[in-house]
Amino acid sequence: MVLHLFFFVVVIPQISTDAHWSQEGMVVAGSIEDSGEGSSGHSDENNSRLCRGVLYRGRRHGQCEEDDIQQVETIIAATNRLASPHGLVIDDENQTIIIADRSNDRIIEWKIGDTNGQVVAGGKGKGYGLNQLNSPTDVLIDKETNSLIICNYGSRQVVRWLRRAGTRRGEILIADIACWGLAIDDHRNLYVSDIDNHRVLRYSLEDIRNGTVVAGGNNPSDDLRSLYNPTYLCVDQQQAVYVSDTENNRVVKWNKDAQEGVCVAGDELEGSSPNQLSHPGGIFVDTLGTLYVADTQNGRIMRWPQNKPQGTTIVGNGDPLHSPIGLSFDQDGNLYVTHRQGVQRFDIE
Asked: At 301, which helix (H) or strand (E)?
C-alpha cells in the first residue's frame, strides 16, 4: 500500500483496517512527563518563577509577558527538551523526526535513537526576523529543493529553510496568512490552512504568488460549504484535501474543484463516542481512504475506515494520551504522536 503523508509518497507494508499498535509507546523525543498542560516551561531566572503557556483550542494563552518569554528563550531551550510540540514529519531516508517545537519557536530534527535533537530552523528567540520563528505549528519536507516548509503561525507567514549546514535564515514564501497546517501533492502544489479566515488555499510551488481557495472561505459555520478554525491537512493522489475542521469537531474531505465538503469523521457535535471527535488535530489518510485522526481533547488516536459511520480507538484506550496534536507514520507503519512535551512512537504489531 502507498500512504500519502502530507508532502511526499511513502511506501510502507500493507496495513489492514484491523491492524494493531502497541499501547506502550516509546518516548523518542523530549518528555511526556506531566509538567503542566501545554507548558512551555520557560524559566525566568531573574524572578525565580515559571512562565507557562497553555494550549487551548489551538491558541496559546501565556501567564507571562511576551518580553519575559523572549528574554529567556535562548537560554533555557535545551536540545533534549520540547515545549508544546505540534506538527511533525518522519524522514525515513535520514532516520530523523522533524518537529515543530512551537513554544520554543524552532524546528528541531531528532535522530531516531538519540537523546538530543538539532535545531534546524529558528531557535533564536521569538521574533519576526528571518533567522527567527514565532510559534511554528507545522513542518514538511520539500525534497525537490531539499528544504523545510514551515507554518510560522505567530508571524503570519509560510517560510522555507534550506536543509544545509550553515543555514541561518529562512525566506518568506507566503505573507499575511494565519497558517496552521500544510500539505503538498504530487504536482508540487502547496496546501495551507488559513485558520483566521476559515479556509484552505492551494499554491503552486513553481509560482507561489497567488493562492486559490480550495476549501471553506465562507463565514465560519457547520455548513459543509464552510469551515471553522481549520488546522491540519492531508491530500491524496486525486488532489482531494482532508481538513481537520477543528471547531466543528469533524474531518471534512473536499474533492478537487468541489464547492462543499463531505464529512468523513465526526458528527459536528463534540463528544467521546465512537462517532464523535473533540477538536481534532493531525490527520493522515491512506490509499484505501482509511483516515487516522489525533482526537486531541479526547486523548486518543482514531482510525476511520472509508464510508464508515464511526471510528475505533487505536491508541489511547484505557490510558488516554495528553492532548495529542500531531501524528505521523514511518515506512514500517509505526505511529508517532506529539503530546505533552514530547514525541511517542507506537510500534505496529
From this structure: strand 300-304
Range of the domain at 64: 2-346
How far apart CA 277 and CA 279 sit, in angstroms, is: 6
Tell me if 306 sits within 8 A of 329, measured CB to CB: no
Of 184, 192, 295, nearest to 250 by C-alpha is 295
Q: Per-residue pLDDT tens for 221-276?
A: 999 999 999 999 999 989 999 999 999 999 999 999 999 999 999 988 999 999 99
Placement of cell 516548509 in the chain: 149
pLDDT number for residue 14? 57
Distance CA 138, CA 334 (A): 20
Number of structural domains (the chain) is 1
Say how far apart CA 341 and CA 185 lie, in whole Å. 30
Residue 114, by phi and psi: left (phi above 0), alpha (psi -120 to 50) or beta?
beta
CATH number at residue 209: 2.120.10.30
Task: For residue 120, give Cα distances in angstroms to 98, 130, 249, 267, 327.
Answer: 9, 13, 33, 39, 20
Can you read off the three cell numbers belonging to residue 335?
Answer: 505511529
* CA–CA distance, 230 with 247 (Å, rounded to integer): 8
**pLDDT, tens only, 322-345:** 999 999 999 889 999 999 999 999
Q: Is 6 helix (H, G, I), strand (E, B) or coil?
A: coil
Measured between alpha carbons, how far is 229 from 133 in angstroms, rounded to an integer?
22
Whole-structure pTM value: 0.86
Are 149 and 142 in contact by the 8 Å Cβ rule? The answer is yes
3-state secondary structure 143-182: CCCCEEEEEEHHHCEEEEEECCCCCCCCEEEEECCCEEEE
